[in-house]
Amino acid sequence: MEKQEFSVPKLAARLKTEADAYRFLEELRWGGEPQACPLCGVVGKFYFLKPANGETRRTRTGSRTERRLWKCASCRRQFSVLTNTIFHGTRIPLRTWVLVIFDMCSAKNGVSAWEVSRKYGITNESAWHMLHRIREAMKREPVAGLLRRTVIADETWIGGDPKNRHRSGPRVKPRGPFGGTDKIPVLALVHHETREVRAMSIVDVTGKNLRRQLGRHIDVPNTHLWTDSAGYYRQLAPEFADHEAVNHKAGQYKVRGGATTNAAEGFFSQLKRSLDGTHHHVSLWHLDRYLEQFAWLATNCRKSDSERLRMLINNVDGRRLTYRPIPGVA
Ligand SMILES: [Zn+2]
Q1: What is the pTM (predicted TM-score) of this model?
Q2: Alpha carbon distance 133, 225 (integer Å)
């Protein structure tokens, strides 16, 4: 497919029927025709099961569907462009999916389940589940490589900083995956050279936890680390090739040599704006999914909305979600 720029009117004009939406995904994911069988993995021969009347086929329940089916010559099973992807088993029209994905790829502050539910006429639960499946496709590869050269590390608290809370304020009920708190520290790593952002929640800000996370994501001996002047980074400093600490307390934001943590702070302020403005309350159980979403958006912020749409659709396979939604969480 020619690399055209998408827009909502262009997508709507192109996706007139469900069969159009299948063809659209087939082009984006496969370049038109299946390359390998999603069920047995064999690269072989595939037959398109052409419906008798051209566009629709009858389902087992007797209703008509525009689902485009293929058959694998090797395992003899049927599949579609949705098999083993985030769309697997969905009852939401594929046209809606494509438009919601486009919304997710173009909205800097994110899209809430309530918004999608109202805009596309689906239930809040369906919308919630749909958005989490899309976030799944934004997730970093589990075997993503280690960051090297220059990495900025910084942390913040999501849910407000506990030191700002008034002592006479309401008691917080114990909830969330980390026990009796509704504040969670989040660590962000920004690769200075590529601007790749990785963000993750951590149990507590201690030297031990930070060391573990940094070791998981950074090629420590070959990396220059830029941080603020917090003590735990100073302890870890000898393990890195070099360490620059920016002393914010002394009003310093950039040291000689250009070291700064501004990129990580910029990510945090965008993240907080989005969580406060669009999502209002994010369940801490699912915080990491939101972190993946905003890290993905930040990493790919220089790409166009259409490029992000293409990237996301190329990342939908093998990422099925099976957990049930929690009602009332946007
Ligand atoms: Zn097969």
Answers
A1: 0.85
A2: 34
Rounded distance from Cα 317 to ligand 1 centre (Å): 16
Segment 149-195, tens digit of pLDDT: 999 999 998 875 445 555 544 444 444 455 555 678 899 999 999 99
How many angstroms does the Cα of residue 84 sit away from the middle of ligand 1? 13
CATH code for the domain in which residue 166 is found: 3.30.420.10
CA 68 to ligand 1 center in whole angstroms: 16
In this structure, are 156 and 291 located in the same domain? yes
Write out the residue range of the structural domain in which residue 259 sits.
147-299
CA–centroid distance, 5 to ligand 1, in Å, is: 34
Helix (H) or strand (E) holding 99: helix 94-106
Determine the distance separating the centroid of ligand 1 and the alpha carbon of 325, expressed in angstroms.
32
Tell me how far apart the alpha carbons of residues 13 and 19 are, in angstroms, rounded to a whole number: 13
Are 224 and 198 in contact, with CB atoms under 8 Å apart? no
Note the pLDDT of residue 330. Answer: 40
pLDDT tens digits for range 266-283 = 999 999 988 887 877 777
Report CA-CA distances (Å) from 47 to 36, 132, 230.
12, 33, 61
Compute the average pLDDT of residues 1-28: 90
325: in domain: no
CA of 23 to the centre of ligand 1 (A): 20
Domain count, the chain: 2
Beta bridge pairs of residue 150: 224
What is residue 274's DSSP assignment? H
- Ligand 1 mean position, distance from CA 128 (Å): 32
How many angstroms separate the CA atoms of 283 and 177, rounded?
10
Q: Residue 280 and residue 330: Cα distance in Å, rounded?
A: 8
CA of 49 from ligand 1 middle (Å) equals 14
- Beta-strand relationship, 218-228 and 242-246: parallel
Q: Which of 62, 68, 75, 56 is nearest to 30 (CA)?
A: 68
Give the Å distance between the CA of 316 and the centre of ligand 1. Answer: 19
